[in-house]
Design a protein that fits this description.
By secondary structure, the chain is mostly beta strands. The chain has strands at residues 2-8, 12-16, 23-27, 32-40, 50-55. Helix content is 0%, strand content 54%. A hairpin with a 6-residue loop joins strand 2 and strand 3 (23-27). The radius of gyration is 12 Å and the shape is globular. The two termini are 20 Å apart.
């Protein structure tokens, strides 16, 4: 669904659902650019699981 860099101004990553029922916030480290890959088990309305991978740029 997404594979690229995100700028995290305060080092926190927040993931939530479209309906606003669930929200996950995690401090991942220092502020700055991070490599982020987000995948789901079934794109669209039928998605039930999400996988988020975070890494330093260049790794």
């Amino acid at each position: 669904m997404f594979d690229g860099q995100l700028l995290l101004p305060d080092g926190r990553l927040a993931v939530g659902d479209v309906e606003g029922l669930t929200r996950f916030v995690r401090l991942v480290g220092d502020r700055g650019a991070w490599n982020v890959c987000v995948a789901v088990d079934n794109p669209g309305w039928e998605a039930r699981a999400i996988d988020v991978t975070i890494g330093w740029p260049g790794t």
